[in-house]
Design brief:
By secondary structure, the chain is of the alpha/beta class. Helix content is about 45%, strand content about 15%. The chain binds adenosine-5'-triphosphate. Adenosine-5'-triphosphate (ATP) binds near residues 95, 170 and 174.
Length: about 400
């Protein structure tokens, strides 16, 4: 759980963010402008700030995320220059925001100190490697003993040590990102960086600079040279999440990098060699996107040397008891309460539900049950709380 301060002029935005972040287990305070925000800030410790106020930049050592209606590259670059750790455009894509929050929290002094363990005596350039190693030990297990999960694990073990590109396909919340992380963990690149890009969340004007970087002066607000994600992932893995949502012009540029293994920063004419393994994921039906002219067929073939299909939870309901046990243990641990039990009948009831949100939805339901139920979760608890409407 973290303490988060949301500063935004819109009441509905403040309420929505507060509700959602509290649902994720964080303690949230809100303020409508930077001045009142700073008063709240002065009286309490915060781990992260979300700032939707377009006025003066926040002067704080706490990581902060800019929320903005303006999706231009200039606006994003300006926010980064002002010290924001991330930039999320409005209307807010909640998955993208939660992802940014998770990453922002990893940048709090406590998290960095954690990750860098005995970093005091370590030269600065070594710290990022330590962070990568610390992050690695946090990659959760792929829990499950059903046939589809056994197949998935076997495939990961076979494919990970190769440098083959992998396209991970599956519905939302099935664990595609988890699969990508394990493909990196079990590869020879495991000591290199794992860099993730959410292609759906980056406005098309920004994607080139985000992926390939830019030179100083490439556009009005490019006052500093910046490395893009491909360069950041050099000798490691680049995970292009939601690739099915990437614009056609950006697809053409990515295709060129995959063919030539070189990138060119925006505003430069110099090619830079990059050694990157690309993994991509999508919840879209790519062949259908190809037939509709929304996705380049040549890029699809470049990306999909191997295709891994991640099963839905409905295809693996046998795993629900073991997943529930796993989530009860981790969530009760996070809330610092004794691990709750669940009746067999309650588990059977959970197995009857449709689970359109897959494992992410199951995790949310278990968290809700942990919060709302006594020490033993009963079938009536499941009936009452599992659909989230109470
Ligand atoms: N087999 C599994 N065992 C344990 N936890 C899992 C498993 N699969 C997924 N999870 C957890 O479920 C949540 C959703 O997984 P993940 O983010 O990897 O899904 P995704 O398919 O990438 O989702 P989206 O398409 O919405 O981005 C995460 O908290 C992840 O750790």
């Amino acid at each position: 759980m973290a303490n988060i301060l949301v500063i935004d002029p819109s009441r509905s935005m403040r309420n929505t963010l507060k509700e959602r972040l509290e649902y994720e287990g964080h303690a949230v305070e809100v303020a409508e402008d930077t001045i009142s925000g700073m008063t709240v800030y002065a009286n309490r410790h915060f781990d992260l700030l979300l700032c939707g106020q377009p006025d003066s930049p926040l002067r704080t050592s706490t990581p902060w995320i800019r929320l903005s209606h303006d999706s231009s590259p200039e606006s994003a670059v300006l926010a980064m220059q002002q010290g924001a750790v991330d930039f999320v455009t409005k209307p807010i894509n909640m998955n993208r925001l939660l992802d940014a929050v998770r990453k922002g929290l990893a940048k709090t002094p406590a998290a960095v100190a954690d990750a860098a363990d005995e970093a005091e005596s370590v030269p600065e350039e070594v710290v990022p490697v330590r962070r990568v190693r610390a992050a690695r030990s946090h990659v959760g297990r792929i829990v499950g003993e059903s046939v589809p999960v056994k197949r998935l694990n076997t495939l990961i073990d076979k494919v990970a040590p190769t440098d083959a590109r992998v396209l991970i396909m599956g519905a939302n919340g099935t664990g595609k990102e988890l699969v990508a992380r394990w493909l990196h963990e079990k590869s020879r690149r495991r000591d290199g960086p794992f860099v993730e890009v959410n292609c759906a969340a980056i406005p098309s004007e920004l994607i080139e600079s985000e992926l390939f970087g830019h030179e100083k002066g490439a556009f009005t607000s490019a006052v500093k040279q910046r490395k893009g994600k491909f360069e950041q992932a050099h000798n490691g893995t680049l995970f292009l999440d939601e690739i099915g949502d990437m614009s056609l012009p950006a697809q053409a540029k990515v295709l060129r990098v995959l063919q030539e293994r070189k990138i060119t920063r925006v505003g430069s004419d110099r090619d830079i060699d990059v050694n990157v393994r690309v993994l991509a994921a999508t919840n879209k039906d790519i062949p259908r996107e190809i037939s509709r002219g929304e996705f380049r067929e040549d890029l699809f073939h470049r990306l999909s040397v191997i295709i891994i299909r991640v099963p839905t939870l409905a295809e693996r309901i046998d795993d629900i008891p073991i997943l529930v046990d796993h989530f009860l243990e981790t969530i009760c641990g996070e809330y610092n309460v004794p691990v709750k039990k669940i009746e067999a009948e309650a588990l059977a009831e959970l197995q009857k539900l449709p689970w359109t949100g897959n494992i992410r939805e199951l995790r949310n339901v278990v968290e809700r049950l942990v919060i709302l139920c006594e020490n033993t979760i009963t079938v009536d608890d499941v009936k009452m709380y599992a659909n989230g409407l109470q």
